[in-house]
Write a structure and sequence with these properties.
11 helices, alpha/beta, 5-stranded mixed β-barrel, single chain, two-stranded antiparallel sheet, about 300 residues
């Protein structure tokens, strides 16, 4: 007998090239590797830390990871916690849209009733207990109160950072365990003045962590990107055909080219004091390390 928990899955996104951080990763490792595979802080890479963060919520057997074919030599040693069949390989990086779509299609093939939580693998989270509590509350809100909505985790800003995307929340939604709102608008990397105004009006950082029913994700994606859904759905289990289909796909961004176009179908849950950062720039990484009382390794003078 299956329960609701048996239909809870995780999708970990590890297909990005991390170009903005390649100078830093080159200094740390000698090669410009994507940041999710780099051990910037401690003995775990960002990808490995993501798996550890997700494991108490969803077991490895129901966790899929989306990686890019060119990254497999880096990825394989860090994917040992997952069954080999749970590694979804995209032939090339076509931005976040096709990669997430490919993962959702594979998940739907396995469990059409899945409730999926989507996690980028290149973020740093200081309070993992509080983070997991938010994910649990997001899932509960979708299952019990808003089954046709997709839920986003919005992080309460502590500064007007121009490197993050912002969500402008609308009216509050009933029924959720913590403050949850309709989504009025997205603002990607606003200037400092606009970021400050958004924060004064309750704006939240867009963490790109999402929860929703996989069937609803795909239903909405088919409305906005019918060609991409049709092409990939037909070849998701055929590597050669998938490579050809991927080669013909235009790149598109999941946030800008999908979420922004379905804002009325979303809810955003406000996360407090998570110690979250997307580590998108060297400055963001350095800010975290300094807050922890650590000297960034690239600031340590070389000895003669």
């Amino acid at each position: 007998m299956t329960t609701a928990d048996d239909h809870r899955w995780a999708l970990v996104l590890a297909g990005g090239d991390g170009t903005r951080l390649q100078d830093l990763t080159r200094r740390l490792t000698g090669a410009p590797i994507p940041k999710q595979y780099c051990r910037i802080l401690g003995e775990r890479s960002l990808l490995e830390a993501t798996f550890d963060r997700v494991a108490p919520l969803v077991p490895p057997g129901r966790t899929l990871a989306v990686v890019t074919h060119a990254h497999l030599p880096l990825a394989h040693p860090q994917l040992v916690a997952l069954p080999a069949a749970n590694v979804v390989v995209q032939p090339a990086n076509r931005d976040t849209g096709p990669g997430i779509l490919l993962g959702l299609l594979e998940l739907a093939r396995r469990d059409p009733d899945a409730l999926v939580s989507v996690f980028p693998s290149d973020h740093d989270v200081r309070d993992e207990h509080a983070f997991r509590s938010c994910i649990t509350d997001m899932a509960a809100a979708v299952v019990a109160h808003h089954p046709n909505r997709l839920a986003l985790l919005g992080v309460r800003p502590d500064r007007a950072d121009t490197g993050f995307g912002y969500i402008a929340p609308g009216s509050r939604l009933p029924g959720a365990a913590r403050p949850s709102f309709r989504v009025r608008a997205f603002h990607e990397k606003p200037d400092a003045a606009l970021a400050s105004r958004l924060i004064r009006r309750g704006g939240l950082w867009n963490s790109f962590v999402m929860v929703g029913r996989v069937a609803r994700f795909l239903e909405l994606l088919a409305e906005v990107h019918p060609d991409a859904v049709g092409r990939l759905a037909a070849v998701v289990r055929d590597p050669a055909a998938l490579a050809r289909a991927y080669g013909a796909l235009p790149a598109w961004n999941f946030s800008r080219d999908f979420l922004q176009r379905i804002a009325g179908e979303l809810l955003v849950l406000r996360g407090e004091r998570l110690g979250w950062s997307d580590w998108g720039t060297p400055e963001a990484v350095e800010r975290t390390l300094v807050a922890l009382g650590l000297v960034p390794p690239w600031r340590v003078p070389e000895t003669a």
